[in-house]
Design a protein that fits this description.
814 residues; mainly beta; Beta-galactosidase, Chain A, domain 5; 4 domains; 9-stranded antiparallel β-sheet; 49 strands
């Protein structure tokens, strides 16, 4: 059975207490108490920090009992449990029970001192009946009021919210925030037909608006299905228990597209699920879950996300040529290379035919030559390809029509009629996938964007326990990934959970376009509602999946644009892009950029991978308060991005309330909500205006007009003299200013600053009011500074300019 991983941090005394009494095994730790009732075949979990209770959960599966499918669980049957592998740093319980249909259910509970707020549960179902069983669904954990469970969270489900992660297995491009009092819908009632779904893909976070309590339930590993977390209230809320209204269900399940035959002696792996309890904030719970996924999936990411350019979004679509790509490679290198741009992507249009994947007639020198041309300009060449599907007009399809799968229900709706997904169960098909990976790698592309691979998940596969669509998909992507090798950066698109542990970058939503609200954009293929594509839909998705970035993969936020946006809108979009911390591409041709637009884009690179939290994630549909903590050897500071996205929705009331576009808003951010001491005095430097203000009353407050942004960097005045900001980069320091050291004995403040030849930047330092004289030097040469008084001190402005790109040393003597 899978192990959650090592307990890395040694503890001199046991973190968990284990006791047994009358067949009940109890594990008590810092964050939760687990009680396994061997007599009743159930287990209960109590959050010791927030008081959340999940009583009488159990494992079950849905089997054909002869007259139809029934839920067949271990509840009511004995569970035999033993400690296995427990020590001072972890606790492990191994339990075995049986269902009435003679299915042996093995459960493994594990928690580690490294993350004592995480309870892991791995489950395996084995048929010991002596004959075959027909199975449609398994529940590694099932907690439902109808099944005798009591699920207490918060005081009222109407005041609780559920952050989903996509829904209904295949509706993955839209992440919803749902009130927890919504009644449970049947599995077939998908979000495509209803205003919400009860079933979240992979994980779900419960959050209580009143108490701040959170509970995350999610899977870290499952190879054959997209697991579903169902969270729901009741149509008629039951009587309160201890002053709280119970939920009707919190469960984790995995289902087969059609019932499968489980032969005698064979098993179904229910995967590994986790509960995250006792977290201080919902953000801590989400990030802890992501770290657990990374541990289970053995994820090791590239040091930083790629920044680049994408031909598809520049307005030409697939109408590209060798000359077009080469011209933009020259432009990108000249405009942005020294500033930190890392790559450029050749998107759809290079190929002769979808499925054959040879260079088209517009690329007469071939793709290897083009990749070399891009690399000679200092950029990593990227290529787009859809290796798991083909167009029926391609030679490959016509020669191997029997290598393709019929379309399932979703496939018939979403896959173009002329396109088809490969049958990934065939060895010869996997050889083809491997050959395509070798081809693009052999051409010299250092980064690959895989697209439309999810067509394979919409195919009509034969019912088979071992060869489900997800299992075949994961295997094929793994083959492609391993053939490319670790030195090639792989990005995929859509279907989050099936890609865990397989890719370096992942596009977390739909295509992006220069449409502010994401609907009615005229010439751009933008939809409405959950299909909306544009600035605000991108912000919504980045906020609701922010926690994946830098942990599971680098989130691909698609493009940044300047056309069809106002100057204020472009600055707001760029600021969001910088704070979100993932992969970003420029969606404009280099010859269409104005000098102002080029200067604005330079503010994004190099990418650092630092990721801000959307603090009002559960208050606004489009979060407007983003917080990035900078805690490094170079500096201690906090970035706060305050936005006004125009029309928005208040998610803290029911029904969700609309806010008009034209209203001015005031954002007042308590410093305590940032984890800062409100009794301290701070200086706050605003990037776009260059103004510095004092924050002395424990609240950062500002007004914003519609479609605008303000980006503040807060520094504790007690740290002065201190580096404050550079105007070269939106994050105002990380990636540009390093090796910051203060020597109070020598009265010096030193730093290394990355400069670009011919592009001056201004460094700002805050010095306390008792400092009378300050001298500044760049590479040992004295430089004149200007000074602006502010509360408690002054802000020094130090110009830094060099003829060539590189690092310079800056010294402040005080």
């Amino acid at each position: 059975m899978p192990d959650l991983g090592p307990a890395d941090t040694p503890h001199p005394t046991p973190v968990f207490d284990v006791s047994r009494q009358s067949g009940v095994l109890t594990v008590t730790g810092p964050a939760f108490e687990l009680e396994v009732d061997g007599n009743a075949g159930t287990f209960s979990v109590r959050d010791l920090v927030h008081g959340t209770r999940l009583e009488h959960l159990f494992s079950a599966l849905q089997v054909d009992a002869g007259g139809g499918f029934v839920t067949d669980g271990i509840r009511g049957n004995a569970l035999e449990c033993t400690e296995s592998g427990s020590d001072v740093d972890q606790v492990v319980l191994e339990c075995v029970g049986h269902t009435s249909s003679s299915v042996e259910v093995s459960l493994r509970f594990q928690s580690r001192a490294q993350r004592p707020e995480v309870l892991g549960l791995s489950v395996v179902f084995r048929n010991v009946s002596g004959g075959p069983l027909s199975v449609r669904q398994v529940w590694p954990f099932l907690g439902a009021a109808a099944e005798g469970s009591t699920l207490l969270f918060g005081s009222d489900p109407a005041r609780c919210r559920v952050l989903q992660n996509g829904s209904d297995e295949l509706v993955d491009f839209y992440v919803d925030v749902v009130p927890a009092n919504k009644p449970l819908l049947p599995p077939e009632a998908t979000i495509l037909l209803n205003p919400y779904s009860s079933y979240s893909n992979g994980d779900a976070l419960l959050y209580d608006l009143d108490s701040g309590a959170s509970l995350l339930a999610g899977f870290t590993r499952l190879d054959w299905a997209v697991p579903l977390i169902s969270v729901a209230g009741s149509k008629e809320p039951p009587d309160a228990v201890e002053g709280r209204i119970p939920l009707s269900q919190v469960a984790g399940s995995a289902r087969f597209a059609e019932p499968v035959k489980l032969s005698a002696g064979k098993s179904i792996d229910g995967g590994t699920a986790v509960l995250v309890l006792g977290a201080s904030t919902p953000f801590d719970a989400l990030e802890t879950y992501a770290d657990e996924v990374a541990l289970q999936q053995d994820i090791h990411l590239p040091q930083a996300p790629l920044s680049g350019w994408d031909s598809w979004y520049t307005g030409v679509g697939s109408d590209i040529s060798q000359e077009f790509i080469q011209a933009n490679a020259e432009g990108l290198s000249d405009l942005f290379l020294d500033h930190g741009l890392s790559s450029m992507q050749v998107d759809s249009g290079w190929e002769d035919m979808w499925g054959d994947w040879n260079a088209g007639s517009s690329f007469p020198s071939g793709m290897g030559s083009l990749a070399a041309y891009i690399r000679e300009r200092g950029l990593t060449p990227e290529i787009w390809i859809a290796p798991l599907s083909a167009d029926e007009s391609s030679e490959f399809y016509q020669q191997h029509e029997d290598w393709f799968m019929p379309k399932g229900m979703y496939g018939q709706l979403l896959i173009p009629k002329e396109q088809h997904a490969l049958d990934l169960s065939k060895a010869e098909v996997l050889a083809r996938v491997e050959e395509l990976a070798e081809r693009v790698k052999g051409w010299g592309f250092g980064s690959v964007k895989m697209d439309f691979a999810y067509y394979a998940l919409m195919s009509d596969t034969k019912p088979d326990v071992a060869k489900t669509a997800v299992a075949l998909y994961r295997n094929a992507v793994k083959v492609f990934r391993e053939t490319l090798g670790p030195e090639v950066y792989l990005t995929n698109i859509a279907m989050v959970f099936p890609n865990y542990g397989l890719v370096d970058g992942f596009r977390i939503g739909l295509d992006d376009w220069p449409c502010w609200d994401g609907g009615g954009c005229g010439k751009y293929p933008a939809g409405k509602g959950i299909n909306a594509q544009g600035v605000k839909p991108a912000v919504r998705m980045a906020a609701r999946r922010y926690w994946m970035n830098g942990r599971i993969w680098w989130n691909h936020h698609d493009q940044v644009f300047f056309r069809d946006l106002t100057g204020d809108e472009a600055r707001a979009f760029l600021t969001y892009a910088a704070l979100s911390g993932g992969m970003l591409s420029l969606g404009e041709t280099t010859d269409s950029l104005t000098p102002e637009h080029a200067s604005l884009f330079r503010l994004l690179v190099p990418l650092t991978g630092l990721t801000a939290r959307p603090l009002d994630l559960f208050a606004r549909e489009y979060p407007e308060v983003w917080h990035l903590r900078i805690r490094s050897s170079d500096e201690t500071a906090d970035l706060v991005g305050l936005f006004h996205w125009g029309s928005n929705r208040d998610l803290s009331v029911l029904p969700y309330a609309e806010r008009a576009d034209g209203d001015t808003v005031t954002h007042s951010v308590p410093l305590a909500s940032l984890g800062l001491d409100p009794s301290h005095a701070y200086v706050a430097h605003e990037f776009w205006t260059g103004q510095t203000l004092a924050v002395e009353d424990g609240v950062l407050s500002t007004q914003l007009a519609p479609h605008t942004v303000k980006l503040f960097k807060l520094v504790d005045r007690a740290l002065a003299p201190v580096f404050l900001a550079t105007d070269r980069h939106l994050l105002m320091g990380p990636g540009i200013v390093t090796a910051v050291e203060r020597d109070d004995a020598e009265h010096t403040l030193n730093a290394t600053v990355r400069v670009v030849g011919g592009f001056p930047q201004t460094l700002r330092f805050f010095v306390p009011q008792d400092v009378q004289e300050v001298e500044c030097f760049v590479d040992g040469v004295a430089v004149e500074t200007t000074s602006e008084a502010t509360a408690g001190g002054a802000v020094l402005e130090l110009p830094v300019e060099a003829e060539s790109s590189g690092d310079v040393g800056v010294e402040v003597r005080y």
